[in-house]
Structures are given as structure tokens and as C-alpha cells.
Design a protein that fits this description.
203 residues, Arc Repressor Mutant, subunit A, 9 helices, 71% helix, elongated, Tetracycline Repressor, domain 2, mainly alpha
């Protein structure tokens, strides 16, 4: 691990435990074992470290599997259960990364105290995923897979709010989330997706 990686990991660990505003560059430097001035060889400021953390987190949300792109010709749209499964699996893989769990905790601790973190939470965690899922339900409606009276916007919120609730619950209960709890999280999100789809699909 090089110095920049150490600064990144130490900063994230401190931010997620104490909150971004409560951690100084001097404290980060001492924990890494370098002088404060040495940080500037890698990051221009504490906020630059934060933005690097957010950039990594954003990448974990990017859909790498071309099978779950929103495309009206995507054959998976004829099998929404499999589409949901792949989406849930992507969330599961993201959460199994310890770094991502720490970033979640950092966001939850600081989003009401720091404008940059609040804006990141709103745009990257709330707005963009809802746009994606609303697009999915719209396509399913257009293809006649779900009922014509379905509301894609409402369905996207119902679908997405449940895993967010479970995530908040896990973060409130555990400092280090056990693997079996994450497995249960995955099982519950799958069950919820199936329940939601059954309520609106064309019989």
C-alpha cells in the first residue's frame, strides 16, 4: 500500500468513526505516520480526500453488467425477476466491500452537518438510482409486462426505499456488519422485489 492509499484508508476510517468535521489533517498525518505537509504531495486539502472517497463510492454504483442496462430491446425485460435479481446482486456486492460500508456510515453521520456530503447523498444515493428504477418500470409498462395503470415513479420509490431502510437498520445496529446479516439483507430485498412485481404484473 502506497502513501496515498494509506492516507485514503486512514481518513475514511477516522471520518466514519468521528465524522468528517471532527477530523483534522494533522490527525490523519499522525495516524498514517507522516508529517502533515506530506499529505499535500497527494491531496490538496481535506475536502480533496473526501471527494476521492466519494469518487470511489460512486464507481461502486456504476453498472458494469451490460445485461442490466435500460434498453427496450434488453431480453431481461421479459423476465423482470431476473433483472431485479441482478440489481440486488450488484447492491450486495457493493455492500460486501468494507470500504463502502464505512462510506455509508460517514454519509449518515455527516449529511446534516456538511453541505458537500448532503449534496452527494441527495444526488448519488437518492436521485440517480430512482431515475434508473423509474426508467425500468416505465419500460416494463410500455412493453405490457406490468399493468397500464401502474405508476413508475411510485413503484421506483417503493422498490428502492426498502433496501435503504434495511441499510439504515444495519448501520444503526452494527459497527461491523456480520456477513450473515448482509446475506439476510440480500434475501429480504429479493423477496420484496418479487412481492412488488407480483402486485403489478400482467397476469
Amino acid at each position: 500500500m502506497n502513501t496515498k492509499e494509506k492516507i485514503f484508508n486512514v481518513s475514511l476510517d477516522l471520518f466514519s468513526k468521528k465524522g468528517y468535521d471532527s477530523v483534522s489533517l494533522r490527525e490523519i498525518a499522525e495516524a498514517v505516520g507522516i508529517k502533515k505537509s506530506s499529505i499535500y504531495s497527494h491531496y490538496s486539502s481535506k475536502e480533496a480526500i473526501l471527494m476521492d472517497i466519494f469518487n470511489q463510492f460512486t464507481k461502486s454504483f456504476e453498472i458494469e453488467d451490460k445485461e442490466i442496462e435500460l434498453d427496450e430491446n434488453n431480453p431481461l425485460l421479459e423476465n423482470p425477476e431476473l433483472f431485479y435479481h441482478k440489481g440486488s446482486e450488484a447492491i450486495k456486492n457493493m455492500l460486501f466491500e468494507e470500504t463502502n460500508l464505512k462510506i455509508w456510515k460517514l454519509i449518515l453521520i455527516q449529511m446534516h452537518h456538511n453541505e458537500t456530503i448532503r449534496a452527494f447523498f441527495e444526488n448519488e444515493i437518492m436521485v440517480k438510482p430512482l431515475i434508473f428504477w423509474q426508467g425500468l418500470f416505465t419500460l416494463l409498462k410500455e412493453k405490457g409486462v406490468i399493468r397500464s395503470d401502474s405508476n413508475p415513479e411510485l413503484l421506483s420509490k417503493q422498490y428502492y426505499s426498502f433496501p435503504i431502510y434495511l441499510l439504515l437498520e444495519m448501520c444503526a445496529r452494527y459497527d461491523d456488519i456480520p456477513e450473515e446479516v448482509l446475506e439476510d439483507f440480500f434475501a429480504q430485498t429479493e423477496e420484496h422485489a418479487k412481492f412488488l412485481f407480483e402486485s403489478v404484473k400482467v397476469k
